[in-house]
Write a structure and sequence with these properties.
By secondary structure, this protein is mainly alpha-helical. It has one domain. 81% of the residues lie in helices and 0% in strands. The protein contains two helices and no strands. The protein is rod-shaped. The termini are far apart. The model has no long low-confidence stretch (mean pLDDT 88).
Length: 110
Amino acid sequence: MKTEVVEEKSENLGLKRTIAYAVLLLLVMGSAIMVVLQVFQYRHDYRELSSFYRERDDLNAEWGRLLIEQQTFGATAQIGTRAVTQLRMYSPPAAQTVVISIPTSTENKK
């Protein structure tokens, strides 16, 4: 009878070990799958962040160009105002305007 009890206990112990190994194996595989998914998500998010940085840099460059353009237009008006007030420059009337035309090659042949 004792041998039967010992055999039964060893069978139960072997079955428990097998179940424990199977559960541990499932947990390790689940952990490995979660690591792979996390790395994939990290790479996806990093790629998206990099594209946002590139877009930010492009927008900053465009903003700088627009500021330069705005300053250029402001300077043009300021130059015109100074030319009239300080240098007393003006646009001549039509009577004082002379148009000079340069003869073209077809007019030289005639």
